Every structure is written in C-alpha cells, then in structure tokens.
Amino acid sequence: MKILIATDTYPKQLNGVSRVLEKTMKELAVRGHQVKLVSVDEFFSIPLPGYREIRVAIFPGSRLTRIVDDFAPDAIHIMTEGPIGFAMQGYCKKRELKFTTSWLSRLSEYASLRYKIPVNWLHKLLVKFHQAASQTMVTTKSMENEARALGIERVVRWRRGVELDKFHPIKTDVFSGLPRPIMLNVGRVAVEKSLDRFLSINTPGTKVIVGDGPQLGDLKNKFPEVIYLGVKEGKALTECYSGADVFVFPSLTDTFGLVNLEALACGLPIAAYPVTGPRDIIGDAPVGAMDKNLAVAIQRALLYNSDDCIARAKTFSWDIATDDFLSNLVPISVGQPVSAEY
C-alpha cells in the first residue's frame, strides 16, 4: 500500500510520537509498503512559544494539497491535532476521503497547563477533530475508555513495542561513585512531566535526569544537587538505564511513556503514580510500584527483580504494534479494494 502519515511532530524531536513514527515507518517498509511522512519539514514553520525546540507549520494547506495529490495514497493517517493535522483533515473532507487519526497525548491538558486555556474548550476541539475520522487509534485500554468518555466514538487500539535489540542490560560504570540508589528519569524536561514532584522528594540516593527541554534551566536552579546529563542516545542511553536502580516516571498526563518500556527492557523497575501509562504498562506484573506517594513507590520498586522486568518488556512487540496499525487503517474511498493486510 501507499500510506500517507501526517504529523505536526518534527521528526528530529526526541519524543514518544517521533520514536513511534520512526519505528513504525521502518516496520512498514520491511513489509513492502510505501510510506510518505508529511511533517513540519515540508513547510515554513516557527518555534512554538515556550517550546523553542518544537516548530509549528504556518498555513500548510496549499503545499500539503500538492504533496498529497502527487503521492496519491491508498490510506491516510493523521498522527497529531496541530496545523498539519487540521490541514490534512480539511483536505480529506473537501474530497470526501476517509482517514484515521491517533490520540497519542493529552494535548488539551498540556496546552491548558502551559497557556492557561480552559481545558473544556480544548476537549471540545479534540472530540470534533477525532469524530471526523473513520477510526481513532489509542495506545491502551485506559485511553480507549477515556476517549469514549469524552465522546470519541470509533476508537481502536494501536499497541506499542520496544526495541529489544537496542535496549537490554549491559555492564556499565556510568554511575560509579554516586550514592545509591540511582533514581533515573528519561524524557523531555517540561512542566507537564511533573519532574519537580520527583526532584523535591527527600530520599537517600542520587537523582539523574536524562533529556532536555524548556524547564531544564529552572530545575537546575531549583535542584542543583540533581545530576543532569542532557540528551543521550544509542549505547549511552542504554548504559543509563542499565546503570540505574529504579526508573521514576512522575508524569500525571502521559498516555503511555515509551521510556517505561525501555527501562524495563534494561531490567529497571518503574516507580510512578497510579495513572494511565504506567498502570497499563505495569499491569499485574511484579515490575513496578505505583502510589500517590512517589517516595513510597520508589522504595517498593527497588525490591523488584530485573529478570521479571525484562520478561515484561518482551511482551511488547513492534511486530504486533505494526499489525495493529495496518488493521486499523481504512481505504480513502468507499470503492477502493481493501488490502489483505488491513
């Protein structure tokens, strides 16, 4: 098939959506599908206020139309609810084409937190956006329930995987000499990640932050005793996971958190609040602790076995995730034949 994926997420950003896109496109190519990514790269863009590392497309409509017409896709999937996502939706509606969407983040809550916009206004916009789609893909059962509760009716699951060839335990002395336990967080350093909740905990050991973002400077000033390593990729990132004692995920708004899977794959147990994302990843497995008191969750998580963490990570497969994505796609027109892989 010729599959077009539209996203407002800049491909070079180190975030969950970009990583899902990268892996999914590779898996689709291996299976013989032709994929066109329509992203911010294709358009004139400006930095998002408050998040200079995130760029947003300005008036992408006319150029987007030429790109889609030239590619002539069999299926269209819209990943994000931004200018490109809305422009792609407008293109499809004008031509009466079917399309699918993803609800991968709590954009309403993020925008409300950052820009003080009433969250109920944003929820109405979110529902209108996804109700126009033939199907909306969500990551977990919890997100499926939340989407339906908001009023998004046609909801299907698109599970996630982890690259086990990349994330696995390795011997490392990356944290040699630091007081134990090593409490690690990996991800974007931004207000919606609730990192201050983690860093303000008074508990023995060393807190380590891997990543970058708009809140980094503030956190460094407020919590100078924390180790800030910046962005790590490849083996350097795997060493951080492998060398730590517990992975702390304080976010209250993430819908999943791929970093949790990466941590588990490296034998690292999770400490988190009992919210969507950690709740779906940990499940009933003895691989992490969730508590409204994050300090309690950390102490409990330290008791878990790394082998159980690795075993849990192996249940999340990118092959299955790609099967989900393909089966959830719809042909752009009613008369179009459906591929055997739909």
UniProtKB/TrEMBL annotation:
Keywords annotated in UniProt: Glycosyltransferase, Transferase
GO molecular function: glycosyltransferase activity
Enzyme class, UniProt record, top EC level: transferase
Entry annotated with the keyword tRNA processing: no
All residue ranges annotated as the Glycosyltransferase subfamily 4-like N-terminal domain in the record: 15-165
Highest taxon above the source species: Bacteria
Gene3D superfamilies xrefs: Glycogen Phosphorylase B
EC number in record: 2.4.-.-
The protein's name in its UniProt record: Glycosyltransferase family 4 protein
Protein species of origin: Microbulbifer echini
